[in-house]
Amino acid sequence: MHIKNTGFGLLLAGLLAFAGGIHLAQGQGITVNYDEAKVGTYTLPDPLRLPDGTAVTTARQWEQQARPDVLNLFKEHVYGQMPAKPAGLRFKIRNENKNALNGLATRKQVTIYFTPAADAPSMEVLLYIPNKVQGPVPAFVGLNFYGNQSIHPDKGILLPTRWVNNNPKGVVNNKATEASRGLQASRWPVEELMKQGFALVTAYYGDLEPDHVDGWKTGIRTTLNDELKIKEDEWGAIGAWAWGLSRIMDYLEKDKSINAGQVALTGHSRIGKAALWAAANDNRFALVISNDSGEGGAALARRNYGETIAQINRSFPHWFNPTYKNYNQAPEKMPVDQHMLLALMAPRPLYVNSALEDQWADPRGEFLSALQAEPVYQLYQKKGLGVTEMPPVEKPVGETIGYHIRNGKHDINAYDWQQHIAFAQKHFKKKAKPKS
Ligand code: GCU
């Protein structure tokens, strides 16, 4: 596949200049390209070509021959190894409130212990399950950035005791305080999800690995070395976060109020990268959403636009497998690109979205990546985006692969969620039924 970039138009050029102002700082002195004319041309690796040159023409051939190889390439070159579920995994319901959110939901808080030991490394999972609809219900699952209490002001949510990124709204000296309740509530429309008949399941990503360069020392990449039979430099923080998502899925399979066959995995930005990687490894996630996941997520790495591999490895050296740094100056040498990660979701419904002011994440690169995943979906007779050019702002497109770009910044907001909920309702083909 050879892609030539076409010009982008004056309006966008203006916006890019604005976005460029923001993101040059993130580039830490490395020049960031926001000029579509300077992206140049690039050749993407073909997911439907086996290493010996044979063309992949059936879903069976993809699943048996090509897919395992592509997944391994991502392990080796990008995210690192993905350990299996530990034998000693166990769950403990810490508390349950059947009358949460003024009776709208049942709130459950569950600890997932990764080993049988009394002081086992663990993660805290928060669930809201709608009370007024017939179960088992479909669920949205996603990690959060500042602790479970940050998703809703609900005073019953336990505060994290672990390291949290400082935030003027209530995280002081890397400890979450009462003031951090609801800090990111705008990103989690809990009541709306309850009304639409979805459970919401979340956990703090720092339970798996605190998000800083030394985070691996106290995270599962160290504490589970023996249990998982893996060394800390055989994977990265994104791998650890993704692994935790699969452990949540292990719990959901045991929770009778949840329809484990209808779990939509969602993630914003770095957590979107982790969500994609989790779903690539774990087919139990029935539907996948990437919100502004950008470089190392949905966006094509070969496009020199916005964040690049060199920049992401420089700012976040702990996120990826160490081998990913080999491509800092030469993304074209990688045997994969991110459209192949998206192709690993096939035939499951996949939704990718971007934001107009989030040029750092390369919206066009996210769109093109989704487009280039289509040939794999076609093997399953599944329709992709239905367009070949980026759709206008806030005009969602697509069938089994969906896409939108919305106005505004790098964020996940009510508009994004409306599309995600509609997409999940369409594919799960079930509207919530009130309890009789
Ligand atoms: C930085 C980083 C991105 C990431 C984002 C986020 O901007 O460069 O790759 O997606 O943080 O997680 O919000």
Task: Provide a brief overview of the structure.
The protein has helices at residues 10-26, 59-79, 190-195, 220-223, 225-228, 237-252, 270-281, 309-315, 338-343, 363-372, 374-378, 414-428, and strands at 2-3, 42-43, 90-100, 105-113, 122-130, 137-144, 171-172, 175-176, 199-204, 258-268, 287-291, 350-355, 397-398, 401-406. With 436 residues, the protein is an alpha/beta fold.
Give an overview of the whole structure.
With 436 residues, the protein is α/β, with parallel strands linked by helices. The chain has 2 domains: 1-79 and 293-410, no CATH class; 84-261 and 417-436, no CATH class. It has 12 helices and 14 strands. It has helices at residues 10-26, 59-79, 190-195, 220-223, 225-228, 237-252, 270-281, 309-315, 338-343, 363-372, 374-378, 414-428, and strands at 2-3, 42-43, 90-100, 105-113, 122-130, 137-144, 171-172, 175-176, 199-204, 258-268, 287-291, 350-355, 397-398, 401-406. The strands form 3 sheets. A 10-stranded mixed β-sheet has the order 3-4-5-9-6-10-11-12-14-13, sandwiched between helices. Residues 26, 269-270, 294-295, 307, 312, 315, 360 line the site of alpha-D-glucopyranuronic acid. Pfam families: GCE_fung (PF22244). Keywords: Hydrolase, Serine esterase, Signal. Residues 232-378 form the 4-O-methyl-glucuronoyl methylesterase-like domain.
